Amino acid sequence: MDVPDANDDSFGIEVILSDGGKTAPCCPHGPTLLFEKVSKGGEKGRRFYACSACRDRKDCHFFQWEDDKVSEARLLAREAENQSKRPPLTQQERVKRFKRLGSLRLDEKKFCQDCQMLLLPAEHEAHSSHRSVGVSSAQLRRPSVLLRPLLNKKSNAQYLFTDRSAHFLLNSLAGLGYNKVLCVGTPRLQELITLRNLEGKHEPMKSLLLDIDFRLAVSSVIMMYFTVQLLSYKPMNKFDTTDCTHH
């Protein structure tokens, strides 16, 4: 297969925006993008689909020519591979798991640094040979402080700011009057914005986190949990907590 080499200086790669008439195939990171090889002379080459998140094919080897006829067997194999690389728990399961964790005594709350996951008491034995640490209530409010940064810049581009830097950015954004923030690979900033909103002392700031780090699925559940806990003490605010499992 003649796969385009992104390091070849004789051509460039352009992204072809979909007109909505064709559904892009999916890789483990979600819907792929359609690319087109363009030579220096402006000649256009064959179009192909590749991962929208990873720039290095070593991190995601998905590749498909646009005009390929993909067999049913290949589609099934692809879906099986995608499923195998997705988070093992659904959103509903993560909510249920965190509620159990929140009811534990402080000395029972553990985080496995090797597996990068919060542990329930029944899982402590299986992780006994791993590096595990206790988890405080403050850390549960900002779970990204427990995580190791993902350092592969070609696929992750993640920035786990220090506490001082994250607060500086938040104060700067608030001081400039911004009330809508897109947090690209900056989970700690997004957590601070959420906690700031929960305090109710400032003008609310809307934020959206874009990050392909599956570990942050736990973070979203935790932040949602504290939001529900706070709103449950405000009788004027009607909030159906059962809906949380669908977001």
From TrEMBL:
<keyword id="KW-0963">Cytoplasm</keyword>
<keyword id="KW-0808">Transferase</keyword>
<dbReference type="InterPro" id="IPR041370">
    <property type="entry name" value="Mlase_EEF1AKMT1/ZCCHC4"/>
</dbReference>
<feature type="domain" description="GRF-type">
    <location>
        <begin position="27"/>
        <end position="69"/>
    </location>
</feature>
<keyword id="KW-0863">Zinc-finger</keyword>
<dbReference type="GO" id="GO:0005737">
    <property type="term" value="C:cytoplasm"/>
</dbReference>
<keyword id="KW-0489">Methyltransferase</keyword>
<dbReference type="Pfam" id="PF10237">
    <property type="entry name" value="N6-adenineMlase"/>
</dbReference>
<dbReference type="GO" id="GO:0005730">
    <property type="term" value="C:nucleolus"/>
</dbReference>
<dbReference type="InterPro" id="IPR010666">
    <property type="entry name" value="Znf_GRF"/>
</dbReference>
<dbReference type="Pfam" id="PF06839">
    <property type="entry name" value="Zn_ribbon_GRF"/>
</dbReference>
<dbReference type="GO" id="GO:0008988">
    <property type="term" value="F:rRNA (adenine-N6-)-methyltransferase activity"/>
</dbReference>
<keyword id="KW-0862">Zinc</keyword>
<dbReference type="GO" id="GO:0008270">
    <property type="term" value="F:zinc ion binding"/>
</dbReference>
<keyword id="KW-0949">S-adenosyl-L-methionine</keyword>
<keyword id="KW-0479">Metal-binding</keyword>
<protein>
    <submittedName>
        <fullName>Zinc finger CCHC domain-containing protein 4-like</fullName>
    </submittedName>
</protein>
<dbReference type="InterPro" id="IPR039846">
    <property type="entry name" value="ZCCHC4"/>
</dbReference>
